[in-house]
Amino acid sequence: MDNGPFVFILALIGNFILIFGLGFLVGGESPEFTILSIISVQFSFVVVMLFKILNKLKKLEGKSKD
Fold first, then answer.
1. Helix 32-65 vs helix 4-26: crossing angle, to nearest 10
2. Which of 9, 14, 15, 30 has the lowest tally of Cβ within 10 angstroms?
3. Domain locations in the chain as residue ranges
4. What are 11-28's pLDDT values in tens digits?
């Protein structure tokens, strides 16, 4: 999973499914949806950064074993 855009797209899709699913369960529209969408995009960027850090740590661990 070292492909950043792929991880970002998966996280973004997952976040929107979660937001729409919760919105459907709660019902109704509110202005908070825009805020939730922005937070969702930011969370996707955080997930990508965490995956990149994890990938670099795995590479460093592999180098230290050799």
1. 140
2. 30
3. 4-65
4. 888 877 877 777 666 666
- Of 40, 42, 45, nearest in space to 14 by CA: 40
Backbone phi, then psi, for 38, in 5-degree steps?
A: -65, -45
Record the tokens describing residue 47, joined without a space: 């997930």
Contact 5, 15 (CB under 8 A): no
Closest CA to 9 of 22, 23, 17: 17
Instruction: Let me know if 53 is exposed, middle or buried by CB neighbors in 10 A (0-12, 13-18, 19+).
Output: exposed
Mean pLDDT of 38-49: 81
